[in-house]
């Protein structure tokens, strides 16, 4: 595959670990995977070698020796662990700038560093529940899907950040069908899997065990999966979630579609806690992010684990290369 345009990485919350993990990820990757960082260079760790660039493509030649920076000035300093309300609007503006570059074909992908939703709400009236919803609005789409991915496993929670007692009413045939369609398309387009196999977890223990532990699998999940199989989707399930994630089971599918948050995230974080990548499927541009938060408690100490950030950059770059080859 040809070298795609470089990804752009947002600064995230400046008071968190975002600036330091970007600098350390560049130091590890350099010209093996060039990327451009968008943020205020005053927020980077002291001593970071950086160069101002005007376009993401310039990172291809700059990255070998310095961190390529698309400069975006902030009104206030970055004090580790202490988000400033005055910086909130620029955190949001950086995200919008990165998306604009990707949508204009000037960047290969968007990699987002962690934000703090409360800081953005308090400082700038941020009107979205989180990163993903804002990105969907910027992309002009109503429905997106969250995937967590590592070398050993890809998982998709159909319902995400809701209470467990809300899952049975939120987990509907329409939502599951939409999640399956978006996931299958993304696996083909961005992961190079011509015929993706998806394993679908049941909602109930033992996938309902024939109605003894719940009826959703019998009443609508199995009929829905049969209908989608008739359209050409390769689906396994509904399966008992407690037997889906051992090595032999994982070898049978390309991604697991789960009913709710913990059903999906517990197995992937058990298998590879440090290298998981958050991927948003269904956007008109590529977006990945490290699977962790702002880590205010360790910000500025230089001890944050960069492995998830490095993998997020690698995955974004690989996805961009596949799209460029289509």
Automatic annotation (TrEMBL):
Chain residues that bind substrate: 131-132, 269, 278, 287
Cofactor(s) for this UniProt protein: Zn(2+); Mg(2+); Co(2+)
A GO-annotated cellular component: cytoplasm
Protein name in the entry: 4-hydroxythreonine-4-phosphate dehydrogenase
EC number annotated for this UniProt entry: 1.1.1.262
Pathway participation: Cofactor biosynthesis; pyridoxine 5'-phosphate biosynthesis; pyridoxine 5'-phosphate from D-erythrose 4-phosphate: step 4/5
Catalytic reactions on record: 4-(phosphooxy)-L-threonine + NAD(+) = 3-amino-2-oxopropyl phosphate + CO2 + NADH
GO biological process, one term: pyridoxine biosynthetic process
Role summary: Catalyzes the NAD(P)-dependent oxidation of 4-(phosphooxy)-L-threonine (HTP) into 2-amino-3-oxo-4-(phosphooxy)butyric acid which spontaneously decarboxylates to form 3-amino-2-oxopropyl phosphate (AHAP).
Cellular compartment(s): Cytoplasm
GO MF term list: 4-hydroxythreonine-4-phosphate dehydrogenase activity; cobalt ion binding; magnesium ion binding; NAD binding; zinc ion binding
Location, primary (coarse class): cytoplasm
Extra remark: The active site is located at the dimer interface.
Residues reported to bind a divalent metal cation: 161, 206, 261
Family: Belongs to the PdxA family.
Cofactor note: Binds 1 divalent metal cation per subunit. Can use ions such as Zn(2+), Mg(2+) or Co(2+).
Swiss-Prot/TrEMBL keywords: Cobalt, Cytoplasm, Magnesium, Metal-binding, NAD, NADP, Oxidoreductase, Pyridoxine biosynthesis, Zinc
A UniProt-annotated Pfam family: PdxA
Keyword Zinc: yes
Organism: Aliiruegeria lutimaris
Subunit field text: Homodimer.
Gene: pdxA
